[in-house]
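Escalated from tier 1: F0G holo job.
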Amino acid sequence: MVNGIIERYRDRLPFAPGDPVVSLGEGNTPLVLAPRLSERAGVEVWLKLEGANPTGSFKDRGMTTAVSAAVREGATAVVCASTGNTAASAAAYAARAGLRCAVVVPEGNIAMGKLAQALVHGARVIALKANFDAALTLVRELVERQPISLVNSVNDFRLQGQKTAAFEVVEALAGELDAVCLPVGNAGNITAYWLGFTESGRRPRMLGFQAEGAAPLVRGAPVEHPTTIASAIRIGNPARWEEAMDAMRSSGGTVAAVSDGQILEAYRFLAGAEGIFCEPASAAGVAGLLAHGAQDARRVVCVLTGHGLKDPEIAVGNAAGAISCEPELSALERAVLQ
Ligand code: F0G
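Tier 2 regenerated the structure:
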């Protein structure tokens, strides 16, 4: 039997026994201590590996709830705007539920793994000649006109599902944590974590990090043309702006920016020194911790929101290449020992 977050946390989610559940066994992801990162940051750091979800990102927590609710309401189709992960997750859960799915992504600006997922699960993939913010505005208008269920994080069921990651962190650390570092894009996830922590009676500082070229919350104004190599968080006008700012303020946290260089450095450090491969956007939280610190925290959780395999182009483009070798022992010896 598939045992996902709705089954595990039904008493804290808006689902009654007997309601339809569309699940791929999401949640229950590893929380691992990061000794080398802890040493570098001067604070005990734990990593929440959300890339271990069924489609490789935290979106699955919110998609099981959003798609289950859509089925309960009798929907036959779902739609989302996405920088890639929401699209991949929506496509998978829609396939599971037997719903039609359309995903609207910024043309040329989504990572290859995510595009592959949306396509292989049979979603209608629409490459919009615009950025994510324009795509979200359009799909919000579309669902006013058509009987299609919107599964972006403007849908409250998404936040309900995503708050379960905070429950897991509280359980794993017996509630003993001082701060949480998160990358911030459309600002749904940091809002959902804060919801989950407050429902658990905990108030860790919420530390949100945006990429320098896509940092509306840091600047205090929308960014018309957001840019960053971390395509997942290339967002200039977050839908959950107010709620996210409230989460950071109420928890005594902050929002700050990190450069693409800092993101890539953290990304390589996690892979090379901790054995953990996350996607670039996910490394923004760790880059933020390293660049800005965590105030007086003793124990910090960094949420690694998506798996590194989502974006093979960035991975290969930022690593030493493979070494070509003739099929002879001496050549192999040289290549190995070089
Ligand atoms: N990390 C990853 C890997 C993401 O895909 C996203 C958002 C975020 C962080 C930021 O989360 O938007 O809740 O603040 N991805 C969305 C998408 C926008 O379409 O897949 P957020």
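The two ends are 50 Å apart (CA to CA).
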